[in-house]
């Protein structure tokens, strides 16, 4: 017996729970005909005005896909309709769920990844998805100096630092660009350092700290270079001068290294994507 989810499609038909792959503030992703279909989020109680707003968000995401075209590392968009995106289905789901399901041994706990927007294909290659919170800037924009209501390459790097922190420690971290601001505030501000956790004695701590220091990385390319300098097989390599990420003498299993490599690969790929596409799209989340 199929159990209905709380969601309905644009025609008001109930969506079976076993078809739901995920949902966010404005979109719902369901499995249909071997594809991941993204549609506007709608409940039975959702007003027509809210549905129309969600449709506009989907259409903006379609524009982002048109700008990106067929980029390596982006979930392929197979087709579109007025209010949906038909995307290639990623068999292994999102990175957060995968690492939680395949949790490695202490001292790393990969259960709380900051973003669910990284999907794993059947061969565990990593793809980026979800551009609903992105805006499109004119081609030729100087991304190192542009400021869009407080959003900049620097805020993207700061947010990425929070993603790295969560992957490494398993602890939630929020790089809140609107902390302590009034609800009506529309301009993002750089958070106080005291609102962020310590990076002492954690793997990649020095790199995370630089992400949270405005201007320490000129752009995402510099961050990518810093990540490239990390040797995954060297247990003393931390980005913090020296820090043994494992207990002295503790044997590391190949399975552990594999899981760590998946997480580390995601970190590196995120940085490369930000650098590669910083001239074509802007992420405000």
From TrEMBL:
GO terms for molecular function: protein serine/threonine kinase activity; protein tyrosine kinase activity. Keywords: Kinase, Membrane, Serine/threonine-protein kinase, Transferase, Transmembrane, Transmembrane helix. Gene3D superfamilies: Transferase(Phosphotransferase) domain 1. This is Serine/threonine protein kinase. It comes from the Eukaryota. InterPro entries: Kinase-like_dom_sf, Tyr_kinase_cat_dom. The keyword Transferase applies. The chain crosses the membrane at residues 256-275. Residues 15-227 form the Tyrosine-protein kinase catalytic domain.
